[in-house]
Automatic annotation (TrEMBL):
It catalyses: (12S)-hydroperoxy-(5Z,8Z,10E,14Z)-eicosatetraenoate + 2 glutathione = (12S)-hydroxy-(5Z,8Z,10E,14Z)-eicosatetraenoate + glutathione disulfide + H2O; 2 glutathione + H2O2 = glutathione disulfide + 2 H2O. Homotetramer. Interacts with MIEN1. The lineage of its organism: Eukaryota, Metazoa, Chordata, Craniata, Vertebrata. It is an enzyme of class 1 (oxidoreductase). Keywords: Oxidoreductase, Peroxidase, Selenocysteine. Belongs to the glutathione peroxidase family. GO terms for biological process: response to oxidative stress. It comes from Homo sapiens. One of its GO terms (molecular function) is glutathione peroxidase activity. It comes from the Eukaryota. InterPro entries: Glutathione_peroxidase, GPX_AS, GPX_CS, Thioredoxin-like_sf. The keyword Oxidoreductase applies. Its EC number is 1.11.1.9. This is Glutathione peroxidase 1. The gene is GPX1. Gene3D superfamilies: Glutaredoxin.
């Protein structure tokens, strides 16, 4: 599951809750249906983006402050925008912890395996 598939689902009048995604840290896929009734903030992220420090720290803060009120932040790493997430899935968490934002940073929100968030361009 990825943001691109979510967009396709919306176009086909399917619900975001019909999908699941595998956590970056490993484990079983998370059914987005289990998040029904929550407010979802779905964000494509990249650890080498110029806004990485701001974005990740703000998403942590949003999850910390608003999570108890029903907000669930979902991060989907993507390499489609300027190749700014060129790390492998198993490298991303260490990149966040030691490089950018660094300083031992750990996301407190759900971060999923790397995916493509834009659908493929049509052939002409």
């Amino acid at each position: 599951m990825c943001a691109a598939r979510l967009a396709a689902a919306a176009a086909a009048a399917q619900s975001v809750y019909a999908f699941s995604a595998r956590p970056l840290a490993g484990g079983e896929p998370v059914s987005l249906g289990s998040l029904r009734g929550k407010v979802l903030l779905i964000e494509n992220v990249a650890s080498l983006c110029g806004t990485t420090v701001r974005d990740y720290t703000q998403m942590n803060e949003l999850q910390r402050r608003l999570g108890p009120r029903g907000l669930v932040v979902l991060g989907f790493p993507c390499n489609q925008f300027g190749h700014q997430e060129n790390a492998k899935n198993e490298e991303i968490l260490n990149s966040l912890k030691y490089v950018r934002p660094g300083g031992g940073f750990e996301p407190n929100f759900m971060l999923f395996e790397k995916c493509e968030v834009q659908p493929p361009l049509p052939d002409h």
